Description:
Shape: globular
CATH superfamily of the largest domain: Butyryl-CoA Dehydrogenase, subunit A, domain 3
Number of helices: 10
Structural class: alpha+beta
Mean pLDDT: 93
Largest sheet: 8 strands, mixed
Distance between the termini: 53 Å
CATH class of the largest domain: Mainly Alpha
Number of domains: 3
Helix content: 40-55%
Oligomer: single chain
Amino acid sequence: MTTTTADQSPADGPSPVAEAFARLPRVVDLLAARAEEHDRDATFPYQGIEAVHEAGLLTLTVGRRFGGPGGSLAEIVRVLAQLGRGDASVAVVTAFTLLQHAEQARSGGWPAAGYRRLLTESRRGPALVNTLRAEPGHPAGLPATVARRDGDGWLITGRKTYCTGAEALAWMAVTARTDEPVPRIGTFLVRGDSAGIEVDPTWDQLGLRASASHDVLLDGVRVPTDLALGLGGRENPAAGAEAALTRAWHDLALAAVYLGVARAAQDWLVRFLNQRTPANLTEPLAALPRYRAALGEIEALLIGAEELVGGLAPRVDLAEPDAVARTGPAQLLASRAAISAVQQAVSLTGNPGLSRRHPLERYLRDVLSGRVHFAPDEAVLDAAGRSALDRGPARA
């Protein structure tokens, strides 16, 4: 792929985005070589994250005004789909850091000094970032995590759950409520090595076992006033549109990861069908029309989902309202296609597909576990139904 920045012509040589794409195949091979080990032991893939960083992939969405490549959503979904083929856990951890940089490029929410520090750390090595929002057993509404004013800063206390990459995060964007008589909700930028932070290794899931999505406990963690975001209390007319864009990037970026996992499963299936010759046959399974048709069904599912995600992404880059509004249903359809594709591959292969000796069962566990990153199907479908009713004809 040849991509040039706004102030760079092809004659100037390949852009940083193009150079990162050129390094991508080697990174994917490295991730795939270590994925089984990290899955088996539930260990964090530090080497894989380092490879992603060294290839320039972890900072692809740093805005051009900050000296970065300014990677688009259309480019990022391609990157994440490939990383998903190598190791879904690495791809998911990478996705959340890319999404943070992309949001900063759009809205500039981080204070200048804080973001400069993050970029400096990113030049030295992998600087992972994620938003810590979910809380165990806590309903939607005011967060249970509390920010208490203390001199010229805030003290943050609470527990966050499903914190992807927890043990390796350089920065945590923690949502919390103030302890004021009328509580305000804000985002507090916390250094991952701050005093008062403890990572509770609770993540022992079926899939994405290397993602270190543990709980994070915060006990009086100090945050300077300038690193407390969104506490101004004034209405921002652009906030709604930016929140919708943030969700759209999240939907398509994470959907791309799981489509990559499904493609890895298909690759393994193709090799299996070409090599497997049962005792009662003289040719491999790939020679049988039934297996070719089943493989074609998987191919059709994935083509449709990839075209959907890949077609919406450049329109989201243009902030087209119709495209932004469609990413929820798009991720649902893409996720269903990815899950169905891997399940069909397992069904076609029988016992070998479920053996720990082969990666197909890991692909199945990973693609099923992707549901933790999306809104429940019922919520997505209810919103889509409401939208259809709103734009439909009035009752006669």
